[in-house]
Amino acid sequence: MAETSSLDKNATELYEVRQSDDIEREAEAAHHIDRKDIHVSAHAELYREALERYPTDDSIDRVAEKKLVRKLDWRIIPLLGVCYFFYYVDKTTLSYAAIYGVKEDLNLKGDDYSWLSSICTSFDRLLRWSTAHMLTLISHISLLWMVSMGELHTTLRNNDQVSLIVEQAIPSNLIMQRLPPAYYLGFNIFMWGALLMCEAAARKFAGLAALRVLSGAFEAIADPAFMLFVSTYYRQEQQPSRISAYYLWNGIGVAGGGLIGYGIGNIEGALASWRYEFIIVGAFCAAWGIIMWFALPNSPTTFWGFSHEEKLLMIARVRSNQTGVEQNRVNWGQIREAFLDYKTHLFLFFGFIANIPNGGISNFSTLVIQGLGYDELGTSLLGIPQGVIIVIWIVLGAVANHFAPKNSRTLVAGAFMLPTIAGGLGFLLAPDDAYVGRLICFYMTGSYQASFIMTLSLITSNVGGQSKKMIVSGIIWFGACVGNIASPFFYKEDEAPNYTEGIGSLLAANIIELLMCIVFRFVFAWENKRKEKQRAALRENGREIQASNETAFSDMTDKENPNPEPDDPKETDADWLN
Fold first, then answer.
1. Which residues cross the membrane (predicted)?
2. 185: nearest Cα among 251, 232, 142, 116
3. Are 413 and 521 in contact (CB under 8 A)?
4. Could you list the mean pLDDT of each consecutive 10-residue stretch along the chain, which spans 578 residues?
C-alpha cells in the first residue's frame, strides 16, 4: 500500500506539478524585454513547434531522419574524433619523451616520471571540481608560487591528496551548463594545446610538472562535453555506436603517436627530440580548438548549416530519449539526487577500476615494449599496431552491441574483458625471452577499451535531467582520473622492464571490471521492474503514460520520469552509423 501511495504521489507530481516545466516557464517569459529572456523564449518556441509538427515518433519521416542523422554524423563525430586523437596523443607524448631523453635532460630520479604521468590527470580534477574559474585561478597562482619557491617537488611527494583539494566543490561541468558548450570546449582545447607547447621549454621537473598541471586543468572538460553532445543529438539506441565512433580515434592516436614518435626521432635539430614532440602535438591541438569553437553547435536551435525544418526534426527525433532538454539553469535538486543515487557511486567506482589499466598503458607502454629488446625507433614503430588493434577492438565492440539482443549491453561489455584478462595473464606467465609472445599478449590487453565505451553509453542513455547528467558524467570521469593517477605508481622503476606489479594491477582491475559488468546487469534489470510497477500504478489511476511530449523535454530526472526504461533499446540497421 505504501508503494502504491508513493507511485500515486509521483504520478500527481508528473501531471500537476510538472505541467509547469522548464519549457512552459520559458514560453511564458516571452513578454519580458530582456534579451536573454527573448532568446530563451525563442528557444522554447522552437521546441514547441517541433513537437507540434511531429506529435509522435510515428509522424517522423524515416527517410528524412536517416538523411539528417548522416549529416549530424559528418558534422559532429569527426570533430570529436580528431580531438580525441589529440587527447590520446597528448597522453603518449610523455611516454615517447621518455625514450628520447626527457629523463636524462630533466634529471628525473626515482618516481619523478610516475609523478609526471599522474600529475596532468590529477590536476585536471582541479578545474572540473572547482567552484568557478576564480578558484581555479587562485589555485594556479598558488601552484606557480610553489614552483618559484622550489616547493612543488616536496609538496607533491608529501601530499598524495593534492588533486582532491576542492573535491567538495561544484564540478566545472556545471559551468559548461551555464555557457555555450562549443565555445567553452573550444577555448579549453586551445589552452590545453598552447600549454602543451610550453612544456617543450621545461628545464627541470618542477617546471614540467607545473605546466602539466595547467594543461590537465583545461583538458578536464573534454570527455564530459563529448558525452553531452552525443546525448543531445542522438537517440539512445544510436549513442553506443557514436561514442565508439569518436572513441576509436583513441586507437588512431596510439598509432599516430607511434608515427609521430618515429618521425620526431629522426629529426636532427637544435632541440632535443622530445621537445619537438610537445611543440608539434601542442600546435595541432591548439589549432583544432579554434576549429571546434566555430564548427561545433551550442544548441540544436542554433546549429548553423541546418534548415529550420531540419532543426525541428533534430529536436523531435530525440523525444523518445526522455532525458530532458538543454537547460542553462543549474537545478540543485537534481544535483542532490545525483549524489544520493546509488548508481552514481557505482559509475564512480567503475570509472576508477576501468582506468587503472589505462593510466599505466598510456604512460609506460613504450617502456614495456622497449624492455622486450627493441631500440627507440623500433619501439615507436611497434606502437602503431598497438593503436590499430585498439581500433579493431572498439569496432568489434560496436558491432557486437549492435547485433546482440536487447538489454544485453552489459553482457557484451563483460565479454570484451576476457581478452584483456587473457593478455595480462599471458604477459605475466610467459618466459622472459618469449619476446614476440609477450608482445602479442600486451597488444591483447587493449580490449578493455570497448567495454569501457559501452559502460559510458549507459550514462548517456539512462540518466535524465540536465544538471544530474552533467554531475554523473563528471563523476565517472573523476573516478577515471583517480584510476589514472594511481596506475603509474604500480610500474616501479626497479621492476623494469617486466613491470610485474604494474601488469598485475592491470589484471586485477580487469577482473573487478568484469564483475562490475555483471553488477550493472542486475541493477538495470531491477530498475526496469521498478519502472514497470510505476507505469502500472499510473495506468490503474487512468493516467496512461507514453513516451510523450509531456515528459520528453521537461528536464525531469530518470527517477522522476516513469517513461524511460533503463539499459539499452535496440537500434535498427538504419540507425547504426548511417
1. 126-147, 182-202, 214-234, 246-264, 276-296, 381-399, 411-430, 436-459, 471-491, 503-524
2. 232
3. no
4. 44 43 42 41 74 82 92 94 84 69 72 60 46 37 41 37 34 67 91 90 80 79 83 85 88 78 76 83 92 92 89 84 59 84 91 83 69 72 82 90 84 92 89 83 86 82 76 81 80 77 89 93 84 72 53 64 56 43
Segment (H or E) for 254: helix 249-265
| Cα angle 272-287-297, degrees, rounded to a multiple of 5 | 150
Rounded alpha-carbon distances, angstroms, from residue 467 to 17, 19, 557? 19, 19, 9
Residue spans of the domains in the chain: they are 49-552
Q: In whole angstroms, what is the distance from residue 307 CA to residue 285 CA?
A: 31
pTM of the model: 0.67
Task: Give the three cell numbers for residue 98.
Answer: 621518455
Tell me: domain 49-552, CATH 1.20.1250.20, correct? Answer: yes
Phi-psi region of 407 (alpha: psi -120 to 50; beta: other; left: phi over 0): left
Do residues 540 and 7 make contact, with C-beta atoms less than 8 angstroms apart?
no
